[in-house]
Amino acid sequence: MRNEELPSYAKISGCTVRKVPFEKTSSKKIIRKIYFDNKEAKAEEKKNLLRPATDLQRQISEVVTSVLSGEEIGTDANLYQNGLDSLASVMLIEELQTQLGISVTLTELMEYNTILKLEELALQKQGEVKVDYSPRPVYPLTSMMMYFSYVIAGNTTGNLPFVFRLDDSVDLPRLRAAFQELMNVHPALKAIIKPTENRYYAVFRDDARQIDIPVYRYTESEVEQRLQEMLVPFRYREDDDLVHIALVQTETHKYMFFDVAHVIGDGITMNILMEDLKKIYDGVAVPKEKYTFYEYILDAKAKEDAGVREKDSAAVDRLMKGYRMRQTLLTRHDRQDCTKGVYGVIRRRLDRIVRKEILYYCKKYNVSENALFLSAFNYTAALFSDEEDIFVNSIHSGRTDGRWTGLAGCLFKTYLCRYERIHHEKVDELITRTGSQIMETMKNYSPVSRMGDLFLQYQGDILSVPTPGDKPGERMHCLQLDSLPFHMQIMFDEDGFYTELRYWENRFDRQTLEIFLTCYEEIVRAMMEETSVHRLKQHLPRELCPLHFRLYGTALNKAAGFELLPGVKEDRRIKIYILDEDCRKKPYGAWGPLYVMDYQPAQFDEVIENPYGPGTLYATGLKARILPDGTVDFLDQEGREVMTDGVNGRRFFDLVKAEEALKACAGIRTADAYLKFNPATNEMNLYADVTADAGFDREACLESMKQTCAPELVPVDLMVV
């Protein structure tokens, strides 16, 4: 029965939706005293609020209140202590620009973090000297555009393709005309990127260009193959358009292919373009961009001339201070040549993660979903690497200025999120720490080179874009893109969270990746239940950890590369364990200390009682892993080929080979090779610590290696320890 049909005494006259759940006892009963105490405290706090004293303060206050979901705060209150997180910051920046015409960057917002200070900033900006935006035929590339033009050219990693099966109501000629108008609204879509006469790449502007939009007729049986053939990499040559658009008619359906070069767009760009395309198709006037990607380029150049790149590189150097990359993880036992990838994909729903619970948790602790997912990922990666210090490459939208929020352009920024284990840390402290780090990195204007294999991207719902027609079109996943070696995206739709992991099959093992994803999903869930970070690993599924693992002793010796078990008989099966510091079994594919049961190895650090039954365990001091296929890897044999993906392209560094090359130099006794961040190059470079005889000539050693070794084996510098 509907509410209006109920008798007056039974009608629901009003309701309140709580964004933060009630505090409850262990038996799930609401603790009423806490609720009323909090309510009284808030009422008292509201009485003492410092309220707006000028029209501008009032206007800013109204915008702030709308972004903070109706929560009024005093004009002297710190916004970040009252619910403003990374996402809300971008929303506030956009609202200040669109409603009040106040252009604020994220860096400025974090500094001018009260309503009073924002008023002060707005008054200051009235007298600023403006950049000369007068149109010109050629524009320089931004640093992110350089990466796509010089490094990613010819690879569909640099594409943003969308394919939709359209509603039958869509009129293709009308849609074709809407696309033409869309390119007038967003003039960057008509640009060409190509080498100049001096051979360096630049953006050539021609707002009068017309880009062809063909309409094809195919049979339904061949349409997916034809659509895949339309996906071609952008090569940035003469007259190479930066958008590829085609409309398709079959005997039963209509399709739209829309591909934008990543060099001028990102996920939010596609959302903006699709929203505007639908409006234009529906006959709604869409004003031409006033602040376009060309003005953004000129602003970027002005910031670079002011030394922002050096400042941002110094900030990354502070973040990565003391970090040494000595290994990788999740790689195949039999990985092949990685100069080119064999592309694979894992798509799966994260059904055990409930979005409503995520939202409640994030609201309660004033953290973003991105901070939660990144914290869980780094924790899981640390578990699999057996390292207490690790990082992941990630991405944010880059729309950290009010002028940029509605701009179609390549504004995203890559950054590093570092996890350092802190003993006895609480889960909410870890996630808050991650959130603070994200906010700090968002202040950096320059993108960071991708370093290491792992790249995680929390996309939210930005790929759920509108489509022309009376009813929504169906987005199709029929295109196989090139990929980074490891690129994991987390998204959500009306059915909840899902992930798409694109990876190189010749570098990573699918079974191990599947286990990693399952563990990751459980860690995300555990973070919302546990208070202690240390207890998170107790939630890992036991079926993903080896129960009783035995291996022939000779096979173990072969995997180790030396006689770890001296004199072992060929038919002798040895029980081994990979355990963490609490003697808990680690999952398949996770690195950890190797223990051998009831057979004394050639080397061992200590002897302990077997916590899983009778027997004695020898701690070998070696790091190894048990793989899903029943084999064993040793870190020095399999896990020390690390990767960077920077301005010089993708490079793989075999640290074991680098150490062997160093030890071949006269005077060096031991060598420890690793990668660390180098602010001079803004990426990870190879370094090494060595022990050497008296009189060792460091410069002569490096010069000799440059003449005899591959560049990936030559350290930038040596430290004699």
Short description:
With 721 residues, the chain is an alpha+beta fold. It is built from 19 helices and 26 strands.
Description of the structure:
This protein has 721 residues and is an alpha+beta fold. The protein is built from 19 helices and 26 strands. Strands 16, 17, 18, 19, 20 and 21 form a six-stranded antiparallel sheet that branches. It has a five-stranded mixed sheet with strand order 5-6-7-2-13, covered by helices on one side. Strands 8-15-14-12 form a four-stranded mixed sheet, covered by helices on one side. Strand 3 (192-195) and strand 4 form a beta hairpin. The model has no long low-confidence stretch (mean pLDDT 91).
Topology:
Layout: H1 32-47, H2 55-67, H3 86-100, H4 106-111, H5 115-125, E1 138-139, H6 143-151, E2 159-166, H7 172-185, E3 192-195, E4 201-204, E5 215-217, H8 223-230, E6 243-249, E7 254-261, H9 267-281, H10 293-305, H11 308-319, E8 343-349, H12 355-365, H13 369-385, E9 389-396, E10 413-420, H14 427-442, E11 450-451, E12 455-460, E13 474-475, E14 486-493, E15 496-504, H15 510-527, E16 550-552, H16 553-560, E17 573-578, E18 592-597, E19 606-609, E20 616-626, E21 632-634, H17 635-638, E22 641-646, E23 649-654, H18 655-663, E24 668-678, E25 683-692, H19 698-708, E26 717-720
Parallel strand pairs: 5-6, 12-14, 25-26
Antiparallel strand pairs: 1-4, 2-7, 2-13, 3-4, 6-7, 8-15, 9-10, 11-22, 14-15, 16-17, 17-18, 18-20, 19-20, 20-21, 22-23, 24-25
Helix pairs in contact: 2-3, 2-5, 7-9, 13-14, 13-15
